[in-house]
Amino acid sequence: MRNLKTVIFAGLLGLFSAGAASAQDMSPEGIWQPANKESRYKITYCGDDNTKLCGIVDWIQPEHQNAENKQLIGTYLFSELPKRSENKWRGKITLRGHTIRGNVTQLSPDKLKVDACMLIWCEEVTLDKFSDL
């Protein structure tokens, strides 16, 4: 009976440890890119209390750069988005030259979803983690 309790306790401890590890792995900080790999975004915590989310256009694939989008490098995709719930931030996002309200949601340690709508036009982009900071 004592061995069974030890096995159950060890199993529960392993489950809780795995849960804690995966929660730690859910940091949105890093370099992220869309599936087409044409651009990359540096996402960090920011703001006075370091709980808001900032995303900067970090890189555009050279063969896809033109006079218009080259100017976007170093500009904010979003700045100081407040956290709304676990792994979700909401605020102003700049997509295709328009600043609109949207969300950044971390789906997994390696996936982020950025979505925003203006009237009937909506845009959703899933980003894959390219690297850690």
UniProtKB/TrEMBL annotation:
Residues 30-124 form the DUF2147 domain. It comes from Maritalea mobilis. It comes from the Bacteria. This is Uncharacterized protein DUF2147. The lineage of its organism: Bacteria, Pseudomonadati, Pseudomonadota, Alphaproteobacteria, Hyphomicrobiales. Keywords: Signal. InterPro entries: DUF2147. Pfam families: DUF2147. Residues 1-23 form the signal peptide.
